[in-house]
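Quick illustration for those who missed Monday's session on complexes.
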Amino acid sequence: MLKLGILGLGTVGSGVVKILEKNAENIKNKVGTEVKIIKILVNNLDKERDIEIDKNLLTDNAEDIINNPEIDIVVELIGGEQPAYDYIMRSIENGKSIVTANKLVIAKYGKRIFRKADENDAQVCYEGSVAGGLPIIRPLQNSLAANRIEKIYGILNGTTNYILTDMSKNKKDFDESLKNAQDLGFAEADPSSDIDGHDAAYKITILSSLAFERFVDVRDVYVEGIREIKSTDLELAHEMGYVIKLLAIAKNGNDGVDIRVHPAFIPEDHPIAMINGTYNCVYLHGDAVGQVMSTARGAGQMPTGSAVTADIIQVAKDINYNQREVQRMDSFLESNVTKIDEIENSFYLRLEVEDKPGVMAHIAKIFGDNNVSLASVLQKQKDNPVVPLVFITHHVKEKDLEKSLNEIKELDDVIEIKSVIRVENDI
Ligand SMILES: NC(=O)c1ccc[n+]([C@@H]2O[C@H](COP(=O)([O-])OP(=O)(O)OC[C@H]3O[C@@H](n4cnc5c(N)ncnc54)[C@H](OP(=O)(O)O)[C@@H]3O)[C@@H](O)[C@H]2O)c1
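Prediction with NAP bound:
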């Protein structure tokens, strides 16, 4: 028999307990021995739970798990940075293997955790930390292991994908769609980690380390969220044959990893453009396999519970049969992140200008002087002294674009630069 201690009995913890109970016989057959929960850590012992649970299993003292010599595997599902990180490290020091869905801790401290695990011959599995039910960590470690992977694109946050889909399909503005997402339980009361892009940044950091075998510091990842996206931009994108998604991007370069999260125009016939609502996807290119895309719901009790329980089965099987399938990380290198102003991209730009002769010529001159060449221009005629001007640029260095926009802002006939959104034509 293998014994589990679970830290946390919230959304995901409850899902894991349900799956372990419901599929106990099947799991026993897969592992070769029974897998039994012997302690569960919670904050509040008196809280009403949505699952039936033997109260004797519950504790509010983490030491009952971390320092319990009977426990083989610690499943961390309390979330957040501390005390989760401390509990993980101390459990490893005590010879336990770890299963976690904590993207923040893995993205921020993965290197230290994996090194500590390698030193202690423990295993760390974290499939649930990226895109909930979507299998991607183990495929990168196993099924895709023969490939050199140079690029990964992902829609890694279901809340923002739901909001952008709702804004686009129902012509709503951001605040209305956010409220709708909150009412439906797809966005938290404090949605900032999702809508400002940090949640997706943790996830792409994890994927990039694994795919490129290079650790990057999550604090160096360029992050821009979706608060500034307007329904006008979604409509114009559609008119020009694009959709707007919050895209997580990682590209392996010679001098560093180009890794970022920001809204992006994507051609509407690209497979990623079709991922709507709360669905997540990961799209990557392997030198042998070619393009691979997988999609699934990126969160929720049972999808995430499924990923976490699969990790438990894997670790339990490895312990029971004295084998090790989980990849070691000790050969991974550390890598720089390419600075955003050195990156080249196409851009969508929406300006509001006065409807006067010569305004286009002034703007075009500034672009020309700063090496910004234009792929297309859309001028919307309105019976109005103020008109919108829309540009799509060819590839330009971010710093050249920024310099030209700073100059354009100063022109008398330019009222405002309304939107600047990157265009990913080469996915
Ligand atoms: N929810 C999802 O769909 C989802 C998807 C992918 C990944 N994840 C990740 O999974 C992890 C768990 O998320 P969740 O949504 O299940 O969280 P949650 O519903 O907030 O549950 C957290 C659980 O941990 C317990 N807890 C929190 N802090 C504690 C502390 N200091 N000491 C003891 N117990 C503590 C809570 O106890 P009480 O019950 O007593 O309050 C609760 O049972 C997070 O890392 C999250 O990012 C979640």
